[in-house]
Each structure stands twice: as structure tokens, then as C-alpha cells.
Amino acid sequence: MKDSDAKCLGNTEKQVEAGGQNNPQTRSQNVSAITRRQFLESAAGASILAGIPASALTRESKGEVPRRTLGRTGEKISALGLGGYHIGKRELPESESIRIIRTAIDNGISFLDNCWDYNGGESEIRMGKALHDGYRQRAFLMTKIDGRDKKSAKAQIEESLRRLETDRIDLLQFHEIIRMDDPERIFASGGGMEAALEAKKAGKVRFIGFTGHKSPDIHLKMLDTARKHQFRFDAVQMPLNVMDAHYNSFEKKVLPVLVKDDVGVLGMKPMGDQIILESKTVTAVECLHYAMNLPTSVVITGCDSIQILNQALGAARNFRSMKSNEVVALLAKTAQAAQSGKYEPYKTTHNFDGTYQNPQWLG
């Protein structure tokens, strides 16, 4: 259900980097994920490298949140995005949610994540209120819908527009593509894609993408189904983190395809909704930096307090491209913990599948 991380950087100084007894040099040969350099030199080779804009690999200026290009759209967005789920939580006062959103924008975060089903619509309602007073013009606004047929998709788009108090959504995404039949349902005659394309033609939607956290094979099927219908997505969202790199990996299977085709890459769950931090193998900052070091357009993380937001902003401002040996060492620390998918339950259980719990949202 949640496409971003809660408590993105809380108590970083208390997190233990276990695994220090492991020598990264002796374990590097066992690391299953490709390093950044290997990624750029693999598979599609020069064509992949050519597809990554310089702004996606380096910071633009000291002390600022980096900005990157969203695939072939040409849109410049912040390399760090604010997750939408956590700003709508019941225990968080609405006034504090609005303050978090506006503080994020004031400090260089332009990419805002949301979804029609987050907190029964409360996340979109609060974000809509926060975007008054000129903030909407400073934000790149993304939200997601669950509808697989045209009728439900159209209704959810209209409801999201009302809640967000806007006449356009910058990026509309089909949410939780986690079933093998989701692509066919969306692209079928009378499917959800018809509603999205009509909304785009009417100027209510600028770009179209999809998101999912279950299986890279399902993502690849969605991309293949789109090609068969002569359609190319503008952006794709998926888990990209130090555990994914080892287990049923979106980084290995999907990321090279997106980069080659110049599709915007939206990284989510950099800390696996905090669960990765429970492994005691990496810190929150390491998690964010790893995801930002990949050719992502934006890394989305959830922040439910100003303190957490400020820590996330610091991580983004201090980001530097990681050296290949640093990547290898980081992956070596997480390799053993990642093997069974224990710290990625969004892949292995239904605990994160909002549409599994509420199939009526699909239409």
C-alpha cells in the first residue's frame, strides 16, 4: 500500500553497521548485484551511458538538493522526493503535515508523491491544502490510481484532482502493478489506460507512468504490453535499495531497460519502510545514498516530522557519487541478510498490497 518510507532517517546515529567483521574485499566476489560502474558498462553499454543525463549522476551545486531530468520528458525534478503516505497518517496533525510539505518545497524538494487510496484520501486532501499560496507552481505533483477499468480509473482521477485542488496532475501512475494480469486489464478495450489518455488529452494529466513493488517480471510484462500497444511510459516506480540489489532485483532486471529507453526512474522504499534498517547492516543515510547513486530521476522517501525531513535534506545535499569500491563494500555488508527477502516483505507477502486487501479499488 505504501510506496515510500516512514521515518526516513530517524536516530541514524543509533543504527549499528553490523557486519564490520566481514572484509569487503574478500566478499566482493559474492555480491550478486552489479556496481554502478558495472551497470554503466554492462548490457546496453554505450547506449545506456548515453541515456543518463549528467545531472542524474552528479550534484548541480554545493549545498542544494540535486536536480535531475525525468527521462525523456525533459522535466527537472529534485533527486529527493517527499512520500505521500506518511503526511496523511491519523496520528499526525493536519497542520504539521502542511508544514512538512511546505518546508520540503521551501528547501528544494519539488517532487511530491501521493496516491488516491492513501489514508482514505486524507493524504491528497492535506497535500491539496498545502499547495495553496503559490506552492502548487513550485511542485511537480504525482499521484496514483488503482482503477484497472476505464470507469473506475476516470472516477479516481477526478477525485484526486478535487482533493489535490488542482486542474492538472504532472504525473499520473497506475498503482500496485503486482499481478500478472494487471497489464492486460489496463490496456484492454475499456481499460484504465483509456481514461488516463483522455485525461491527458484534456490537459488534466501531463505524463503517465506505473508503480509496483512485487516482482520485476511483472514490471517487464507491463513495459512489454505497453510496447505492443504502441505506448511508452514516461516514468516507472519501483523498489531500489541495498536489499533489492541481491534478491529478485528490480535494479538488475528493470533498471537497465528503463535507462536504455530513457524512461524516468522513480526509486522507492530506499529503506524498505524502515525494515531494512532492522537488519543492522546499514544506516539510513547509506540507504538513501545507495539509491541516489543509481541512475534514478528521484528517490522517494516518507517523512512524518520536520526533524526527519531535515535529516533527509541533509543526506541529499551531502550526496556525492559513490566510488565503485564503496558500492561493493556496502553490498557486501547486506548480501547475507538479503538472501531470503526477509527485509523486503513487500515482495514476499501481501502486507503492503493495499489492492489485495481492497480489491474493489481495482474496479
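(the above was protein one; protein two follows)
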Amino acid sequence: MLHKIGRLFTIKTRWEAWLVIYAIALGAVERGRHYLEIYPGWGGWMLALACTGVVFLAGAKLLDTVRPAPAGLKAGPYSASMKRRTPIGRSRPTLRRYRPSSEPRISRRRD
């Protein structure tokens, strides 16, 4: 039962994400107005800007999470398989060898 109720609060489409971003923006602007009343001057403006800046961060995160699937992939329970990027043995860093010619000219100079 809780799972069914929880599905109501899941953002599934970009349209729903835009609605949530709009609601966050309205709240942030209202909070910024209160900060300007409580803290007049430079401090209030900084807090108001911080409130509205959070909307951009939260909106970007919301829109990234509901990004549509690429058109080339098959939708459904059997999607395209992912290829492994590199074998396990090749992910290790290689040893760098000392080369005297790669030193800067200043360190090779002898007075």
C-alpha cells in the first residue's frame, strides 16, 4: 500500500519536473522577499540571490533525472546490452620511466 502511495510522488515526465521547478521558484522568491525585509541592505540581497540560485541547481538535477531515453534503444524490459568499456587488466596505471631529456632546461644547467 505504501508503495502505491509513494508512486504518486514520483516525478516521471519532464512536464512534472517543470511544474516542480516552478513551485520551487515561487517559494524561493517568496523566501528572498522575506530576507530583504528582515535584513535590509547587502546581506539581504545576498541571501535572496542564494535562494534563487538554488532553483537553478535543483532544476538541473530534476531535469537530468527525467531525461528521455535515446531513440535508438529499444524500450521495455529487454533493452540493449551495455558493452564493457575496458578489460580489468588494462585499467591499471602504467609506470612512467625517467627520461633525462624531458627535464626542463633550467634543471640541466650547470654553473
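Reviewer note on protein two: Helices lie at 2-8, 14-38, 42-65, 105-108.
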